[in-house]
Design goal:
- The structure is a homodimer.
- Chain A has two domains: 134 residues, Creatinase/prolidase N-terminal domain (Creatine Amidinohydrolase, Chain A, domain 1), CATH 3.40.350.10; 258 residues, Creatine Amidinohydrolase (Alpha-Beta Complex), CATH 3.90.230.
- Helix content of chain A is 34%, strand content 20%.
- Chains A and B meet through helix 3, helix 5 and helix 8 of A and helix 3, helix 5 and helix 8 of B.
- Chains A, B: It comes from Paenibacillus selenitireducens.
Amino acid sequence: MSVPQHEIQDRIARLQHKCVEQGIDGCLITQNVDLYYFTGSMQTGYAFIPAQGEPVYFVRRSLTRAAQESHVRVEPLGSFRQFGETLAAHFPHAFASTRPVLATEFDVLPVQLYQRFVELLPPSTQWVDGSMLVRETRMVKSAYEVAAIRKAAQLADAALEDAASYICEGMTELELMSRIEYTFRMQGHHGIMRMRGYNQEIITGMVGSGAAAAEPSYFDGPAGGRGLSAAVPQSSSRKPIAAGEPILLDIGCNIEGYVIDQTRTLCIGKLDAALQTAYNLSEAIIRRTEEQLKPGTIAETLYFQALEMAKEGGLEAHFMGFAADQVKFLGHGIGLEIDELPVLARGFAYPLQPGMVIAVEPKFTFPGRGVVGIENSYLITDTGFEKLTISREGIITI
Amino acid sequence: MSVPQHEIQDRIARLQHKCVEQGIDGCLITQNVDLYYFTGSMQTGYAFIPAQGEPVYFVRRSLTRAAQESHVRVEPLGSFRQFGETLAAHFPHAFASTRPVLATEFDVLPVQLYQRFVELLPPSTQWVDGSMLVRETRMVKSAYEVAAIRKAAQLADAALEDAASYICEGMTELELMSRIEYTFRMQGHHGIMRMRGYNQEIITGMVGSGAAAAEPSYFDGPAGGRGLSAAVPQSSSRKPIAAGEPILLDIGCNIEGYVIDQTRTLCIGKLDAALQTAYNLSEAIIRRTEEQLKPGTIAETLYFQALEMAKEGGLEAHFMGFAADQVKFLGHGIGLEIDELPVLARGFAYPLQPGMVIAVEPKFTFPGRGVVGIENSYLITDTGFEKLTISREGIITI
């Protein structure tokens, strides 16, 4: 299944509209995921999208494959040293002003490559950060994109149910995680998931049981997991799963480039009362959040509201990680990457819009004991939301 | 297993030696893999390594975990806005000159974060690209590092033999790949492998059969594979494996941060004569290469020699990809990342040194028919080499 042509045209038109609004003459797209989003292909090269007119995808390799996949005109990149001349020749309009303004993805583009562009393009070029321009264009999903996420959600549910039937006392986190990943991969999971943030990585999520799930982590989420070594300090460890402890299954997969993110809490036997209370609060938060999931709600208010509920429940220090290791958000956009806009956090004043897809993940961390919580992914619709996650809620008792 | 303390001290001493030689006052280490290499921990933060004296790892999150793992002194990052003052206060010597020279990883550091550093640090700072400094320090491996790679090589062999016993006609590439990944993961593979190059990604390698293996690819290797969709255009596809076609198992795993990379060619039944001849040439190239795998050999000469052999065999157009989609190298260093130094390619004039670990991968691509070849990983020793790859050679006939 390839990206429909009208979809690519619409994406480019939306980016161009923003360019015109912001006085930008053109966007130089360099990152693989952004290239795929705007062309339908992910080969090595750079796409130039002028504020007006037809874009070009300059490809180094593989030109053949790019020509098959891209809905944007493909041309050979040719000599990189001539790239400035190539661009100026193709886009006289964009370079017509005495001080052309070009945007590129400062959030991901490495300094070395950026400095080459600065060297090669006309010295009059004024470079600006196009990260938000690109990320905001990608923030609102089409029906085509939502269809892929919906498919990924079905796989996540199947993997969860399979894991629930497979899990047993004494099995290690890693054994259960291996099984989940195998289930995903056999069904068409791409084998990698993508994060945009510098140094951020994600595996297929994690099985995190008891104390191992509650270990502090660099990972930009409420629970990262102990991991197998300090070299990849996240996800599942070799800890055996015990009865009576919370088992967090925070799992995701990548279908046709699109990711899903969902969490369920399992327990072999009975969870103790304090953890059950915390779990119940996570469900209460997600229900209260759902009431606000509709066009116009300001993203950050959902975080404030959740934080208020955690405080009222006396669990503020445990909310979204413990104490100094807490993260300060309630959820995040998902799409081609797992860390998309909008973030449900202070400073993100976006009003929700139809087409946004957001993972909401209230969780509570108890050092030495475990993490409990729930995470659903939602599509914002014209009138409210559609829950894309189809898995059953509540503690899943084994 | 954590990185031994003396190991970290040695790495820092080698970097500092290079800094002094190159007139650099200090290195600001920002990338997760480099942080792990120089501290033993991979939490969110930045390490400052002065040309002389003790480094500090400034950590945002998780401070607790960094303090447990790091052999470098850990301090809270505190307010990022004050980072310039923090550094100047900790490292008066490095900032003593009127024009302190600081190196950082321009090959991976995004422009946005770099601009923040430029803003926050003294305006007199002269920033230089420290990529090669860091990569050259990491190029020579210790016994500790080689031990992890050796372990990964054993797992790769076990996964290969398991795959050879499991494979059958009609099975899809994806089914076999899922099985290989499951085998790896159960044995402690971290679930991700790392590449340093911008936009480069790798899964666990690939099962590539017949025409699917030979499809052109952006992937920076001789064969990338068809993949499941244009969104992740590499690795295995849903193509069923047929008898009589070459099946490339280019697989790797990540053990305690360290990767292995090996390739074997399999065939259900008999391979046709032309492909067998090409395979034989790949083995002849690897044997000739082995004769030169010893201290003092200049890295690029191994590529030239292999290219010459491909020409003599009349297979130049098929060597390391086909025609316009060829890559221009014979091998690459491996370690914490799969694309390390030295590269066996034009322009890499490094003399081989004891401790280098290099994957050598002569392969031949036949569009519509498949890819044949072999890939072994080698350690350069004082007198020659040790083959780290332990798998049997020759076409593996099923």
